[in-house]
Amino acid sequence: MSTNTAERLDWPVVAVARPRPTPDAEASDLAACLKGPNALELVVELAHDLRSPLTSILFLAEALQQGQEGPVTPGQSRQLGLIYSAAFSLCATASDVLELARGSNRLVDRAPAPFSVAETFASVRSMVLPIAEEKGVAVRLVHPVPERRVGHARAVSRTLLNLATNAVKFTERGYVELTARPIGAKRLEFSVRDTGPGLDPGRLAALYQPVRRVNGDGREHFSGSGLGLTICAKLVRAMGSELRVETRPNWGSRFFFEIDCPPETLGR
Predict the structure, then answer these.
(1) Are 196 and 253 in contact (CB under 8 A)?
(2) What phi, psi does 138 have (nearest 5°)?
(3) CA neighbours closer than 13 Å in the CB half-sphere of residue 74
(4) Where do runs of H (alpha helix) occur along 102-212?
């Protein structure tokens, strides 16, 4: 686990227009609050309240795993990795709620800049690997050549992390693979492939909706709320592309998008 948690936690600071409550707007329970005029404000405040302690858990788990408080056994290191991954997943969900509250159609890194695809892939892999190893699922990386590119590194990283987290979560055997394939001289196709159960074709039309219900069989093959995939689709659209998916039974799923991402020597 590397020491750049703060850099990876690119959580947005959200300013949401807050409706002025009426004098009799006090609700007696949470359900009533969520139906009232201040529902969005309440959801945003809850997400903020969840994210702060979760961020503390992330830093503490990382510090312990790195041995800052003394030697750590291999078993303890694995357990700390699972704690880190679980806290990061919860923190990312809270961040997705905040991102949707502000519209989620803006890129943090507005101007393309040089970045390393290999380092981006390695960072994503380090965050999903503890859960993957616990399940016996391999995490593969396929880098482009050349791997130094110019693009929106944070948007790419966040999209891949959401997709890889989903893929690992719902893959019981086989592998999850992150790939960046050159398309011509200046474009890359990024993809996350898994060997999970695949998706129900009848549900693909609603795949990127922010709130979804489980299938009749009780199974939800990707994030139950749909927030992660909604954010992915919006980030990819902000980069000028569309998030697409290939899926079939006994093969798995592949989410992919194609964006301008020229080699650093051509893009500067």
Answers:
(1) yes
(2) -80, 150
(3) 0
(4) 117-135, 153-169
| C-alpha–C-alpha distance, residues 110 and 213, integer Å | 34
> CA–CA separation, 180 vs 108, rounded Å?
22
- Torsion sign over Cα 213, 217, 222, 223: positive
Residue 129 CB partners (closer than 8 Å, separation 6+): 81, 139
Residue 27 structure tokens: 């609700």
Q: Which residues of 24-34 are buried (b: 16+ CB within 10 A; e: fewer)?
A: eeeeeeeeebe
Indicate left, alpha or beta for 18 from its phi (over 0: left) and psi (-120 to 50: alpha).
Answer: beta
Does pTM top 0.85 for this prediction? no
Rounded to whole angstroms, the Cα distance separating 210 from 100 reads 9
Residue 187 or residue 70, greater confidence: 187
- Dihedral, 97, 103, 105, 110 alpha carbons, nearest 10: -90
Least confident of 107-121, 133-147, 151-165, 222-236: 222-236
Residue 141 has pLDDT above 90, yes or no: yes
Q: How far apart are CA 120 and CA 234, in angstroms?
A: 20
CB-side exposure of 38: number of CA atoms within 13 Å?
A: 14
Separation between Cα atoms, residue 22 and residue 176, nearest integer Å: 51
Dist. CA 229–CA 64, nearest whole Å: 32
pLDDT at 220: 43
Angle between helices 227-238 and 74-101 (to 10 degrees): 70
Chain length of the chain: 268
Q: Compute the average pLDDT of residues 71-94.
A: 81
Closest CA to 258 of 234, 238, 235, 242: 242
